[in-house]
Fold:
Amino acid sequence: MTTSEPIATLLLVDDEPLVTDGLKRAFHPEPYRVLTAASAAEALEIIANEHVDVIISDEKMPGMPGSAFLALVRQRLFHSVRIILSGQATLDDAVRAINDGEIHRFLVKPCNTTDLLHTVRQALTHQRLEAETRHLLKEYHRQSALLARLGAILPGLRHLETDDQSVDDEADGGSNVTELIAEIQQALKSEDFPTPA
Structure:
């Protein structure tokens, strides 16, 4: 799968350059932009200036462990996908990473490249679906607010039937959709357009 434009940006964080180089090669055929950092501090500088979709961090690093780093990332890039890749994992490390950083996966080195690629693809799909859900929820709230405002200016309106282009209204028993639209547009233009509390 290759495209001219990357579909996501990955950040690989490990204090061993051979590890980040190997991971970068593994992701080379994929449609990702891959950034690397040798420490949590360097990675934090990168995410301060770059949009990052997926962060894969080692757990055992000088200065700050991966779980603490990803907990900070969670506060700054809440919707990023966070993955721990550790060669010296303990149960305590995994629990801390899950609780503090809300990581997507905790993988143990050496990690099978196919498994890692699959994990990232799956994580990006999950991230996209969550973004679409947030967008749809925002649109639902926007439309609900609009309907509430319309209900305030047309309190008798109760049902719109699009099949026969008629509107049932408690006040007059029905009116033409075109007339209703004109009435709504006029109400929207009026300065006294009510907004519900």
Summary: Strands lie at 8-13, 32-37, 54-57, 81-86, 105-108, 157-161, 166-169, 175-176. The CA atoms of residues 89 and 108 lie 7 Å apart. The longest strand covers residues 8-13.
